[in-house]
Lipoprotein-releasing system permease protein
Amino acid sequence: MARAQDTGPFSGFEWMLALRYLRARRKEGFISVIAGFSFIGIMLGVATLIIVMAVMNGFRNELFDKILGLNGHMLVRPLGEEFKNYDEVATRLREVEQVQKAIPLVEGQVMISAEETARGVIVRGIRENDLKNLEAVGRNIYFGTLDGFDDRRGIVLGTRLANALGVRVGDGITLVSPRGSQTPFGTAPRIQRYPVAAIFEIGMSQYDETIAFLPLQQAQAFFNSPESVTALEVMLDNPDAVNAVRPELASLLPPNLIMSDWRERNATFYNTLKVERNVMFLILTLIVLVAALNIISGLIMLVKDKSSSIAILRTMGATRGAIMRVFFITGASIGVVGTLAGLILGVVVCLNIESIREFIAYVTNTDLFSPDVYFLSRLPADMDLWEVATVVIMALSLSVLATIYPSWRAARLDPVDALRYE
């Protein structure tokens, strides 16, 4: 008698059996329900991971774009004495290849008032060209203009600050500083009135309601420092290159100046975001892990239910490897299809997340992303290709690993024991 030819691994016969076991029958309905929940769990787990990581990336990038767009990547300050040679130091620093800008500024806290409203703000004195080159401000002037800023007596406010004061372009506001002139009776507060020259909106509430800009010479006069500045802000081509550039910049500074970078000034905030991202990834990975455990339980029940069919296949010549591959395909199919569905769902949500937020806010009549709480005026999502690939590979790996033990149990089934009581 001619010997039947063995089928190769992952042949059509094995795929046919595996897909047949995935189809629901009345007797195996509960097993199919478990498989369905496993599929939904993996899909939602992968989608949730992609969406949450993208939102956290977008949140981080937006915040640092706003923060670093308004503040220098490196800050040069004097040690206990006036900073008078700021133009000379700025010229030296600009000669370094990686340095984009070196901006002298005067900064101080004042009280700003209009009619019956008063608030505490930070006033920065800056030159017109430097203010225009600050993209966070120069590209977001909503009312008025920065043209002629150096030559006229005017102040630039954020939209939230202007709304709180109830002023528009051309209206007057009053600045009050405790650092005024010395009199025989003590220090008298300095009070000056300025017209509103322009109104900007960065999109970060913390800045739009607490920062105002004056021309550098006007700020120097107001803060009684006519020949000096508070600090020199240095902008780099790449903010992450501060460690590489810092030694060269430090060598160009006089001994009475110190330098700090944006990571030092935002260390708590930077580290908090980093820890939150890592913890959130680990927590959400548990969703995928639970779905993978559902695959294990579903396959074990399927193996128990199909024990007689496995025994018959073994007596007909099916090898242990073939049986193992059949159940491996059955379980892995749930994981692979669930992962791909989760990938598609996550990408679609990330690409339309702001529209989805606006729709949910409209339906529920609630503010889901208040700028007063989250500092930003929109919900950002920035997908990182490497992170998405990591999520997909992790989900596929867990799904494949979950099928190994049930498949091994099916392959080790003894046909004699399985058919003994049939």
Observations:
- The first strand starts at residue 74 and ends at 78.
- The mean pLDDT is 79.
- Residues 82-255 form one domain.
- The first helix runs from residue 12 to 22.
